[in-house]
Specification:
Oligomer: heterodimer
Number of strands of chain A: 3
Structural class of chain B: alpha/beta
Shape of chain B: globular
Order of helices and strands of chain B: HEEEEHHEEHE
Radius of gyration of chain B: 16 Å
Distance between the termini of chain A: 32 Å
Radius of gyration of chain A: 22 Å
Helix content of chain A: 40-55%
Number of strands of chain B: 7
Shape of chain A: globular
Largest sheet of chain A: 3 strands, parallel
Distance between the termini of chain B: 13 Å
Chain lengths: 247, 153
Amino acid sequence: MGALGHYLETQGIPTTQISLIREHTETIQPPRALWVPFALGRPLGRPGDPVFQTRVILTALALVEAENGPVLEDFPDDAPDVSEPAEDIADLPACPVSFARPDGQKTETEQLLEAFRQELADCRSWYDMATAKRGFSSVAYFPLQAAFQLFHDFLLDKPISLDDNIASTALALRLAAQDLKAAYFESVMVRPDVTLPDDTAFTRWFWQKTAAGEVLRAVRDKCRASDDPALKLNGKLLLVPMDQASS
Amino acid sequence: MARLNTMPEPMRSHLAGLPCPTFDTRPWVTGPPLSRRRVAIISTAGLHRREDRPFEGMTGDYRVIPDTCTAKDLVMTHISTNFDRTGFVQDWNVVFPLDRLHELAADQTIGSVAEFHYSFMGAADPGAMEQAAGRLAGLLKGDAVDAALLVPV
């Protein structure tokens, strides 16, 4: 971000920016920056708090009137009502994934996909209600069933067909993973049996208690084992967050 | 919180180890008071119109976001999986504060809002963004923008 500010200012455009990683901004020294102590992914602080967001944006914009620079100012406050991560998400519902089926007819992957299919069936109604309530969804390319089909086919080595605007299987898997998480979060927002105790609880719930999280780890592992460099990169970095990689 | 020294591993080491460019020059462009500035948002959140192309890699390209976009029109295809997207799902302003910018223009705190805004995908090599930034500067000048608000993710 800081380099972009430098490049644009060099070309004659006055810039001011929000900084999330102060150490990076200190090194790059862009013309004007406001460091904010907020979580990655939330540069304006807190969703649904327009008063606080306006304070942040105004503090950043005011820097264009500074007389000389570079300027690196600190925003004085944390985002309001940000709670420390709760240790326990035990009360949140979990999808039981059992690999001990008595019939022994299905592989572990098939059993995982079956648990995923059942979980999606539970999720679907809540997702549809959430979408109807808001009038739109953040899901971009892969609705729930399409995401299921893609992961199913990839894990079982079935042929994969892609839309014209999706250039590769690696890109499709990455986009479908993001869409799956967005759909789960949107469904959680309306489910009566899930109350997220803090801002990080959804991530921990998704990766530690859902079949979807287990499926994405299985996709990651298969990508890692691939000879395709794009799939290998997916497996290394782009499907499972670093802090959830070993769970 | 996004303080490196309070971040858990392995994120802390990953972010601390990212290469950051340094520059010999310190460009500084002045302009009128904020109340007369025309403001554009430049995001690095990998945002684009729903019907536009997803971000695919580290090529430093950008997408154009018309000022008429609303929350339902915009999606995020940033390549990283290591930041929280639930804030954006709840309220796009927490990443792309276009509603806030329009409010500031309506009460004349800023002069006006640009006709177009832009988004890069921030995991790209900063050097790869340099050429695109040159083209972008021409577009911003054509839109009479004299304050670019850069917002990371």
